[in-house]
Amino acid sequence: MISSALLYLSNQPQVFNFVRHNRMAKSMANRFVAGETLKTALAAVRRLNAKGVTASLDLLGESVHNEAEARESARQYIEMIDSIHRDRLDANVSVKLTAMGLDISEDLCVANMQSILEHAHDHGTFVRIDMESSEYTQKTLDLFYERLFPSFRACVGIVLQSYLYRTATDVEQANRECARVRICKGAYKEPASVAWPEKKDVDEAYVRAMHALMSDGHYPGIATHDEAIVDDAKRFARENDIPATQFEFQMLYGVRRDLQEQLVREGYRMRVYVPFGTQWYPYLMRRLAERPANVAFLTGNVIREMVGRRRR
Ligand SMILES: Cc1cc2nc3c(=O)[nH]c(=O)nc-3n(C[C@H](O)[C@H](O)[C@H](O)COP(=O)(O)OP(=O)(O)OC[C@H]3O[C@@H](n4cnc5c(N)ncnc54)[C@H](O)[C@@H]3O)c2cc1C
Hints:
Number of strands: 8
Strand order of the largest sheet: 1-2-3-4-5-6-7-8
CATH architecture: Alpha-Beta Barrel
Number of domains: 1
Helix content: 40-55%
Shape: globular
Low-confidence stretches: none
Bound molecules: flavin-adenine dinucleotide
Oligomer: single chain
Largest sheet: 8 strands, parallel, barrel
CATH class: Alpha Beta
Radius of gyration: 19 Å
């Protein structure tokens, strides 16, 4: 119920316009978002790298409204890749196709992605294409397999979501094509016609997809904070002689930092998804929806800080 309401609010731009300059909302966002500028995001990556954690930088800002905005997003991604290279950071980037103009024109989106990927190729880095809501799944995969992957194989990968019924088949295709996959549960509000409504089914589908990717895939990213699944991945790797260098765990900035550090100590690869930018509102709402207890937790923290500040 609360999750649905938060997911609904994540799609309401007028609410964002209201909270955009609200200090309390911004303080809440800081827990999950590495600031509004590339500079603050690079500083966050540097802190993660110092702890042995790699990163994937995401410029927040989903659907763009015109060609100029889409080209500007692509330009900012190229700047991000340059800065990562210049500062010798251990990070790659995650991109949403709607931010590259997918809703405006497929050719525009492909041209933007090609310029980012050429840049990534020249700098020996990797670009992950995030997966958005189910209305984009087929379009994203078609565009990936037909227009991007053939020319940029080692530099580009996709995301699959275990809540979709179709994902087992998509995992088979990715393994056949040797495409790099990040597997996650899925963050959007989806109807029962396309996605498992019960969490138990989503979790079971996740484990099946993860096993298939670990056995037959190509350097999968295991993106979850679910400790039972993390333990299962470790056990599966041990029992099937899969070295820890053949996959990586991935988590979100600000979520389960204890588990992130523990996995690094245990010798696993850990990548943190680091979102930044002014368009933090839909991202924040999706994170709150995943764990409504966060609303109380964050509100409590922010109020404590505000009271503390007033006392000082
Ligand atoms: C690196 C990365 C990239 C992602 N990319 C995409 C993508 O491209 N497309 C997409 O649809 N989704 C993406 N997601 C989001 C993902 O689909 C889930 O919505 C999210 O990861 C929560 O699912 P979970 O696997 O952690 O399991 P859950 O069952 O939701 O959570 C397991 C446990 O993790 C902790 N936890 C989970 N979320 C939070 C949170 N927000 N705050 C605090 N604790 C939390 C809680 O302890 C919870 O009990 C990504 C997630 C990660 C980690």
